[in-house]
Amino acid sequence: MLPPLQLPLLPPQTDLNSRAILRKAISAHKNLAELKGVAHIIPNQTVLINSIILREARLSSEIENVVTTDDKLYKAFASSAKNVDPQTKEVLHYREALWAGFKELKSRRLLATNLLIKTFNIIKQTNERVRNTPGTRIIMNGRGSVMYSPPEGEDLIIEKLKNLDEFIHNDQDEFDPLVKLAVIHYQFEAIHPFSDGNGRTGRIINVLYLIYKRLLDLPILYLSRYIIQYKAQYYRLLRNVTAKNEWGPWILYMLDAVEKTSLETKKKILRIKDLMDQTLKDAREKLPSYVYSKELVELLFEQPYCKVQFVVDKGIAKRQRASVYLMELERIGILTKKKVGKENLFLNLKFYRLLKD
Q1: Per-residue pLDDT tens over the stretch 144-185
Q2: CA–CA distance from 31 to each of 138, 215, 218, 286 (Å)?
Q3: Angle made by CA atoms 245, 113, 233, in degrees to the nearest 5
Q4: Are strands 336-340 and 343-347 parallel, antiparallel or unpaired?
Q5: Could you tell me the pTM of the whole model?
Q6: Whole-angstrom Cα distance, residue 307 to residue 326?
Q7: Of the given ranges (45-49, 107-111, 162-166, 262-266), which has the lowest mean pLDDT?
Q8: How are the residues of the chain apportioned to helix, strand and coil, as percentages rounded to the nearest 5?
Q9: Nearest to 226 by CA among 11, 31, 1
C-alpha cells in the first residue's frame, strides 16, 4: 500500500493503450453513442432527467449505506410533506447536487475543483471545503483493518486536486476519453478530499465528465447499479491500482461498466417511449376530448407521482379542472390515487414499475 504522501500525480506512468483496453474502449464508445442518440426519441427531456436521476440518486447513496425505497423517494420528490425521513432527504440532496452540477457545466464548460466542492456541499448540506483534520483512514468493511490512507493536509489535498483538474481539462493528451474517465474516478477516490460524501461526489463527476466531453447531452448514464452488482470487484481493483499500480484491470472494469450500463439505459429509454406511446393511445381513446392532451400525458412521465399543482404549473389547466383531469385519468386506470399527508398524489403505476425493474 502506498503511504499517503506518495499518491502519484497524473497522468499515470504506465501504458494504458493495451490491445484489450483499446478493443473494450471501442465497444464502450459504440454503446454510449447509441445511448446519446436514443435519448432524443423522448420529446420531453425532463422525463429522462427526473426519472433516471432519481433512480441513480437512490442507488449511488445505497453504496454508502444511505438507504431508502423507490416509493419513499418518489413520494418525497412529489409531495409538499415536511416529515421526510433523513435518509430519503439525503438522497434528494444527491439528486439536487447532480442537477446543479449539470446546469453549471452547461453554462460554463469547466469541471473544476470549485464545482466538485459545490457538489459535495449540496450532497452533505455543508459549507466545508477539503479535509483539514488528520487521521482519515479507509477501513475494510467487517474487518476493521486499514485498507488505504489518503493524502493528509489541506495544502497537499489542494495540490492533488489541482493536478486532477489539469488532467481533466488537458484535451491534447493521448488518452481515450473513457480511459481518462476510469483514471479520473480512481484519482478522485484516492485523494478522498472531503470528510464524507466522496463516493457520491465521485460518481457525479463520472457523468459530468461525459457531458464535458460531449459524449452525452443529458446526465442519464450512471454506473451505480453496475458497481453494486460487482461491488467486491470494484473495491479490489481500486486497491490493486493503489498497492500494485495495476491500472489495466481497473480500466477494463470501468469500460465494461460504461458499455453495459449504456446498453441497459438505452433499453429502458426505448421501453419508456413504448409505454408513453401506449398511454397516449389509451388516453386518446378513453378520455373525454376536453381532458385529453399530449402535454398532460407527457407530464405523467416526468416523475412517477403527479398532483394537481403540477398540472397547474404546466399551464395545462386551472386547479379545479386539473383535479378533474387527474380523476379522469384514475377512472380509466392510468393513475392510482394515494394520500400522502394532506395531499392527493396520483401514481403512474406502469411507469413506476418500469423504472424499478
Answers
A1: 556 677 888 899 999 999 999 999 999 889 899 999 999 999
A2: 34, 11, 15, 38
A3: 35
A4: antiparallel
A5: 0.91
A6: 8
A7: 45-49
A8: 65, 5, 30
A9: 31
- Residues 86 and 166 placed together within one structural domain of the fold: yes
Please name which of 33, 25, 15, 22 lies closest in space to residue 265, comparing C-alpha atoms: 33
Of 202, 235, 268, the one marking the end of a domain is 268
* Nearest partner of 191 among 227, 148, 234, 221, judged by Cα: 148
Cell numbers given for 35: 445511448
Alpha-carbon span 191 to 164, nearest angstrom: 9
Interacting residues of 294 by C-beta distance below 8 A, sequence separation 6+: 280
pLDDT digits (tens, 9 = 90+) for 275-323: 999 999 999 999 999 999 999 999 999 999 999 999 999 999 999 999 9
252 pLDDT exceeds 80? yes
Please say whether the beta carbons of 107 and 334 come within 8 A.
no
CA distance 139 to 161: 23
The domain total for the chain is 2
Long-range contacts of 135-143 (CB under 8 A, 24+ apart): 136/192, 136/195, 138/192
**Burial 328-349, CB ≥16 within 10 A → b, else e:** bbeeeebbeeeeeeebbbbbbe
Same domain, 122 and 89: yes
In this structure, the answer to whether residues 156 and 41 fall within a common structural domain is yes
Closest alpha carbon to 348 in 338, 187, 357: 338
What are the grid coordinates assigned to 297, written together?
400525458
218 three-class SS: coil
Q: Based on the fold, state whether residues 40 and 153 are members of the same structural domain.
A: yes
Burial class from Cβ neighbours inside 10 Å (0-12, 13-18, 19+) for residue 326 reads buried
Query: What's the chain's average pLDDT?
Result: 90
Query: Locate cell 486536486: which residue?
Result: 161
When comparing pLDDT for 137 and 252, which is higher? 252
Same domain, yes or no, for 309 and 262? Answer: no
